[in-house]
Structures
1.
Amino acid sequence: MKEYKNEQEFLKDYDASIFEKPSVTTDIVVFSVSESKEDNYRKLTSKKISVLLVKRDTFPFKDKWCLPGGFIKMDETTDESSKRILEHETNIKELYLEQLYTFSDLNRDPRTRVLSVSYVALVDQSKYSEISEKARWFDLYVDINENTYSFTLCSKEDKLTFVLEKQEDKFITIKNNDLAFDHPEVIGLGLQRIKNKIEYTDIAFSLMPKYFTLGELQQVYEVILGKKLLDPAFRRIISHKVKKTNKVKTGVGHRPSVLYQFKK
């Protein structure tokens, strides 16, 4: 074996082709909270958690729904790639993304060996109303039976289903005919991440408009956590995170409600 005097000399002779190279992609799971109109105009508008999907127009998985994603270029970081891909595929930009997990199962992509660095984000859907034609928001419903998670994703035109099994710190796909790649597992892990973080961080406020009622904020917490919260306990928990304004919300069929805003 040749001995080198310094690193520059070593790198000059170095042949990177001796190693196999997997491809690397980024996949982005974007969650929001959508509103559902109530028949009783005196009730608060109910809220549902939503996830953003795009329809594939090429093989593999042509015409299947998937998360926004794509291959990383040689001259960009995974952070830069995820933002570029998200804007290209959905028309959403200037969005804070948090790295979620690296998915590396050997057969996750039928084309070749592909690793995926996934990202997760929470957004106020009303700020991104003009998404691209191939992107669509799907309302997300989860039925949990011990370690089995049955997901249903619904838009006006489509209904998608998949079943995951929780195994320690990850999910395994048990049934999936509707989503491309291993994206059910990305969605499952992303949803778990935001549930874990909502109680000790301020991520819920990225879903809120500038001014909101405490009832609206509580609904966002409840729909993400998947459980009902007691009003007095919730207000104690978030009291140091919000500040009262001199504005009120009117015209919603009940007594005007005081509006609050996030205390940064």
2.
Amino acid sequence: MATFKVELPNLPYEHNALEPVISSETLQVHHGKHHQTYVDKFNAALEAEGIETEDVLNLFEIVSKLSPAIRNHGGGYWNHKFYWESLRSPNEDNKPTGKIAELINESFGSYENFVEKFSASGAALFGSGWTWLGQKEDGSLIIHNTPNQDNTYMDIVEEKYNPLLTMDVWEHAYYIDYQNKRPVHIQEFFKIINWDKVNDRLN
């Protein structure tokens, strides 16, 4: 019986679309090699365990009962897909508009405060992982870090929210362009956030 398989999603833009914030070289390596590896290893784990569900999020809800390969590579597959869709070509004055702008002001006081808190969270994350902007059940926003390839849908993550935006702070996301200067990469990241997509993800 055939098992469920995932495929490497196409990028929603060209490899050079995020320059100079993220170089074409970084995008080719990050998407074409790192993300592809997560896809391949996730598929291998699905086959090895005979998993046939077609909803990855359902697996995350019981991930504590599954192999570390499902957690790590399934998370790597899904988190990266979400990440690519969160980005667009750079804009020096790339500020949120619409409902997300209102919620940011309500939750953090101002956009500038949000940038400060999101940046600090990403810079403080030890090792590898992701910094998320999420919407809680009460409608308020939260900034939250997850280690490695974890995300809020996994039953091993205590903080639950609707993910709106994520920033990859694994070194492979920025090392070619910024070497060990993670805070500089984070500073530039705000120029490429796709706020239209973030608005679409709101509850």
